[in-house]
Design goal:
single chain, elongated
Length: about 160
């Protein structure tokens, strides 16, 4: 078993929400569950999800590579997504990204040497009025990110704060 029994049970609860002949409809939830356990979605993890949902592995890979919330390569403990859509860019997104790059010593699609941070470009997060917006580990949205707030966020994450 590539995933834990607990993860397969969680996936089965998601599958149960759909008609039996449409269990592949749970693919996004299954990928999220697998990524929560493994940290990222290696090819063998994608295959395990495909096997469990009885769907072609390529179809699972297509979903995993289409959405940027799925990690198909290893990432740091804290993945920070910076909204790079135009409203955020016009409201400080570029400045926020530059501050993070400087503070973390990495560029987009890179992971810090200590394995703590990965920085990625994100698509619209639906909070344009709160720009610039960051998303930490696909769970925690951070709004109106001034340089001071960015510094405080990185310091908090470095000290093991909430993700």
């Amino acid at each position: 078993m590539l995933l834990s029994e607990q993860s397969y049970k969680k996936i089965d609860r998601e599958v149960a929400k759909f008609p039996p002949e449409q269990k592949q409809s749970a693919v996004m939830a299954a990928l999220h569950i697998a990524q929560e356990e493994k940290g990222w979605l290696a090819p063998e993890t994608l295959q395990a999800v495909a096997d469990h949902l009885e769907m072609p592995a390529i179809a699972v890979q297509e979903v995993a590579t289409f959405y940027n919330m799925y990690n198909t390569k290893p990432v740091g403990k804290h993945k920070i997504s910076v909204c790079t859509n135009l409203p955020c860019q016009l409201s400080g997104g570029e400045r926020a990204a530059a501050r993070l790059k400087e503070k973390l010593g990495i560029d987009y699609r890179e992971t810090s040497a200590d394995g703590q941070f990965t920085l990625v470009e994100g698509e619209c997060m639906g909070a344009c009025a709160d720009a610039p917006v960051l998303l930490v580990n696909n769970k925690r949205m951070c709004s109106h990110m001034s340089n001071d707030k960015i510094d405080a966020l990185v310091d908090e994450l470095n000290q093991g704060g909430k993700q």
